[in-house]
User: What shape does this take?
Amino acid sequence: MKYEKLRGVKDILPEESFLWEFIIKKTIEIFKRYNYSLIIIPTIEEESLFVRSIGDVTDIVLKEMYNFLDKKGRKIALRPEGTASVVRAFIESSGDVKDFFYIGQMFRYDKPQRGRDREFYQIGIESFGVNSEYKDAEVVKLAKDILDNLNIKSYEIHINCIGTKEDQKNYSNKLKDYLNNNKEKLCEDCKKKLERSPLRILDCKIETCKNLIKNIEPITLSISKDVYEKYEKIKIILSELNIKFKENINLVRGLDYYTGFVFEFTTDKLGPQQNTILAGGRYDNLVEELGGKKTPAIGFAMGIERICEVLKAENFRLDYDKTDVFIVYDNNFKKESFLLLNNLRDSGIKAVMSFEDSSFKSQMRQANKVNAKFALIIGEEEMKDQKFSLKNMRDGTQMRIKKEDIIKIIKA
Ligand code: ATP
Ligand code: MG
Assistant: This one.
């Protein structure tokens, strides 16, 4: 019997995984610059951790959770996102570090399509303990630095402020009043949300719902004075950092724990349904709600698949995976070639050779295939003179060099 992978999951093969390596490497570079530390969290948690933090009337909890009973009948879920687990770990460990980043797969029973998988990867950060407009601005700058370091051009930054839980309750009542009069125009999901979680309607991706909420009074008019003032300060700092952003009054995020400042980075490369590539915001109540001390916090998550799609759409070319040298040898000198291969690698050069006995011509073809910068040719004549031929694969020029000079020349 031949197996196939399940719907909504994928194998990432080397044709694409080099992009993943690039994304992870470049992103970690920026995390280090900002003094964030890696945290590794489990893929399974008690289901209620997610229900309580993400919210019981969110799409994730209502429709998308991978949950099951374990052998002892406990309710377990595969993590649909990282924040809840990092907050749990933060409370449980009470260590000194307060700025974390994570990388890993998340699971959501989403409708699979481009940029929307059932197992997908996020890179995210969570920062605890600071409630300052400078922190909020710093987190947006950090996210922007990541996209810039990845050389992504087509993105926009959208921001909003959704106030305290109390503000959200007041605004939800206004929304209810307004939308109850237009109930029949809402999609089936939003009709359900109207009673228990009207704010979520602002996050609906269906055109008729979007139209309906277009002219609604913005939430920023309903938020408390100090939160609003802080939001104004964040905008000023962002401008001073030369960060361009758009205020989006319908931006509420799909998870319940957010309070105050929220943001999304969007792209026009992935179609309207999957246009968010990075998203986050402040969640100042969650640590306390999950049993910790009251601690302000802010974080974001970036979807690796969507970043990959944007890089591909922008025709991104990567030079960093090139082989330095491919050894092309006469089969009589396999051992000598193998020893030389190891010398090269020991000095930090990315060197490759084939162990099959094959012709010069076939080896040159392989050198081209792995994108080698040089071919080092070891034939009878070369062995006799102890002078090897080094062919530059880009311009086709060739020179004879002494064995002891090989490493120096390739590195140059
Ligand atoms: P969307 O509105 O597109 O469903 P979301 O609001 O559910 O996204 P978040 O929970 O904020 O997404 O996750 C942050 C990021 O993770 C998203 O911006 C996106 O890049 C990525 N992401 C979310 N769900 C998926 C998925 N099913 N497949 C691939 N990437 C995803
Ligand atoms: Mg979603």
User: Anything to note?
Assistant: The pocket of magnesium ion (ligand 2) is lined by residues 59, 254 (CB under 6 Å). The radius of gyration is 27 Å. The chain has a mean pLDDT of 93. Residues 323-411 form a domain with the Rossmann fold fold (CATH 3.40.50.800).
